[in-house]
Amino acid sequence: VSIVLSNIFVGCGMVLLLIGLEQFVGRKGFMLHNWLLQIIFGAAMAYYTFIQPNLAAREIAISANIVIIDFQICWLLFRGAPAALHKFTRIAGIALSGYVLVSFIRMVLLMVFPPAAGGFFESGLVDSISLLLYVGLSSCLTICLIIMVNARLMQQIQVQEKKFSSAFHSSPYAILLTRLSDGSIFEVNKGFENMTGYPEKEAIGKTTLELGIWVREEDRMKVMQRLLKMQTVQNEEIDFKKRSGELFCGLYSANIILIENENCVMSSISDITEISQMKERLHAMATHDGLTGLPNRILFDDRFGISVANAQRKKQNFAILSVDVDMFKSVNDNHGHPIGDLALRAVADRLTGTLRKADTIARFGGDEFVVLLGEMEQREDAVRVAEKILDEFRKPFFIQEITLILHLSLGIALYPDDGMELNELIRKSDAALYYVKEHGRDNYQFCGSLTSV
To answer: Measured in whole angstroms, how far is the alpha carbon of residue 421 from the centre of its chain?
Structure first.
């Protein structure tokens, strides 16, 4: 049993070696015939062991099996492997060629000079030499396979290092490597030099704090806390400072990596200043009036929500003022729309200068403005603001050597006395505004009374 099983294991081991080497060189062969061969070989070993014991027949079968399988392995290593791998596979192929040669010679000699029938426990010259050669070739093959695999791994490591080095130094992004222990920089790329203005020799050995790259220390602290907790930071918009003192907006990412058994931080910064400025411009266009630069309805709605939250938290009131320029159509009719546009800008500027920073003034269209007076203690606060606005607008405007008198009409609605929703408050302040226009203009009116003040 040990004779049969041990030789079957040897045959199957050679087939598995062939499969493993095919995977190593990136090929996938057809193995069914080799497994069928092992079944035939096992049957032959069992026959010449149990039914008709014959040592010479078993040794010839073993040698033939080795020749067939190892010849396929040699062909794979010499011819089937990609040309780039030949320098790795050739040395193992030479060792396996020795197996094929020794097994073929042994098989021929056993056919020509079969061992004596009674010499089961006697080692002939052919077996002794074959055994010595097999042991030596097995040692050589083991060493060759180790060298082949390690050489392939080293080549892959070198290729990856070249790829990393090429990507690191040719990247348009600023990339720097720092030690996690003390934050000192030990490598930067050309992108870092070009983006920040710091040459490599000036950056190496210093920390980013010493270079003054961070505009705000709290940004760095936030990044480091997240990095230590999550091991990575991705796509954070942060303001950085160049060597010249110029600020730029960067998209910052970082990962903790292991380099020579030391935790390091690989950071990358992409200059998105233009994109950030474009976003700001688009946001301003979406939330501000194009003519006057005042907030539009979208931003006003947002400010209203903030005022409601503050009023509920602080138990305070606020007011909505509907503002309309009296007889503004005559300005366009008498002086033209360009003067009318300049007049609207002047109106917006004077309104803005009259109000507090906490208040919001928006242009809803034409000569219609809406004011949000925040943090009011009492009704008289709105009265004082309304009277101040009216007094300011009784002063003349001087626009391109044209003197204009632009009075205002104001309608006032109080939160929460006159309503809780913005649309309701604007509707009521508009009603008060129309009342003023119908009763002489250049005045203000609370919607709650609708009586002239």
So the answer is: 42
